[in-house]
Input
Amino acid sequence: MHPVAQVVFLGCLVLTFMAMAAFAGVLWVSGGDLAASQRVLAGGERGLDRRTLLVMNNMNQLLAFLGAGWAFAGIVGLGFLGRFFMKPPRPIFWLLAAAIALGMSPLMDWSYRLNEWALVPGSALHAWAGSLEAQAMAMTRSILAFSEGAGLGMVLVSVAFLPALCEEWLFRGTLQPLLIRASGNIHVGIWISAALFSAIHMQFFGFIPRMLLGAAFGYLVVHSGSIWPAVTGHLVNNAGVVVAAAWMGPEWLEQGLEPQPLSMWDAYDWGQAAAALLALGWAGQRLFTLGRPEAYLEALDTET
Output
């Protein structure tokens, strides 16, 4: 198929597998009772217990993201997909991935405020995005409330390990190279893939921050020639939130998930932001110095 047709086909697979994941999740919740499943679907995910949310999240990751990517690779052919997953990166790229994930924090915090302002507070769009954000935040707080059951290991698998592996396989390992082929431009492929990666989370106050993070992971893949640095960066980013919630407890959970106004920052916050931005600058400079995007394009061009 033409690369554009492949992108459309992949999108259809993802939507199909997302529907399968939702159906499998509600069947698990209802114990196989179809009538009870309909009531769960009608009521959304509000009121579901923490363990159920984790299981449903796992099903979505494994089916909608990893499953759709593997189905696409099986139908169209592994080609470059297998090459980017099997190739080990140079060791420096593991360190760059962690530095980018940690260093992005101040930039993401600032862009979150910019994102909310761009939606025009008081508008219908802002209210709609705010309702989605509130629902997602309630679910996140429920999952990260370690006083309520599931332990650190279970949450790390569901919130950090599976998203890092499954989402990177789909968006940076499968969709991004298809978009680069279709557009003939690395930057177009990276940024469109990052935008779709952000949009599929359905949290639009955080659309710009998540897109920036996705683009950073995309450049990691292009310059390293391997998907694994992006998986590492994604894992470090998500695991940092989980570990912070487990370590600092309910007080951090109430305050740490929301971006704080600059007027509330103390010397420690400013120092942490400065150190993170220095790490991000170093990682970005080294990435573009060490990376060879030509090798990435050559790998795409050699596959029919």
Notes: The chain has one domain: 80-301. DSSP finds 14 helices and no strands in the chain. The chain has a mean pLDDT of 81. The CA atoms of residues 157 and 163 lie 9 Å apart.
